[in-house]
Amino acid sequence: MSETQSAVKPKAEPETVRPTKKQKELLSYIEEFIAQHGYSPSYREIMQGTGHTSVATVSLHVNNLIKRGHLAKRDRSARSLEVVNPNSSVNKTPLEPKQLKASEEKWLVQKVELFFKDAESSTGITEPEMDKLYVLIGALKVLGLEGASQAFIARLGELKKRQQNNQYSV
Question: Can you give the pTM of this predicted structure?
């Protein structure tokens, strides 16, 4: 084997170099923006979102992140930045349900109570009225008012029995 043959090695993939603190902040902002909007931010949006005072500074950081292997640009077009190895935690932030205030809970339960009282006082209940009551109970469950929904489910069962008895009586 000759010397030239042994010296030829396949080129290794360029390894990514850790970003600086500022570059990491910028990279995180870009990744969060893409996760939230579905497209990459403009340089001006990056500038405003990261607190930079110059688009040129943003451009410098973006170009360095591209050289270091953290970002890629598609076709030199606007909003063409892509995060090379996205951080999986950005896309998996759990959605937290909006918590109701005590006054809002009370108001909501009172409203549902009114609908039930109307249904219970009527001589016959229609299918759309029953559907509305089912939806209201479902809304209470979704909003975390499990106790109130359970109380209304029992009343809904009584209404359903009454509805079935009215259907068969002539």
Answer: 0.44
Structure tokens at 16: 């990514």
In-domain check, residue 13: no
Cα 113 to Cα 64, 101, 138: the distances in Å are: 62, 18, 14
With respect to residue 123, please indicate whether it lies within any of the assigned structural domains.
yes
Provide the domain limits for residue 46.
19-91
Give tens-digit pLDDT for 133-163.
Answer: 999 988 888 888 888 888 888 888 888 888 7
Tokens representing residue 47 in the block? 């500038």
State the DSSP H helix or E strand holding residue 54, giving kind and residue range, or none if neither. none
Strand partners of residue 82: 72
Pairing of strands 71-73, 81-83: antiparallel
Cα 55 to Cα 45: distance, rounded to the nearest angstrom: 9
Q: Roughly how many angstroms between the first and final C-alpha of the chain, as a whole number?
A: 104
Same structural domain, 110 and 157: yes
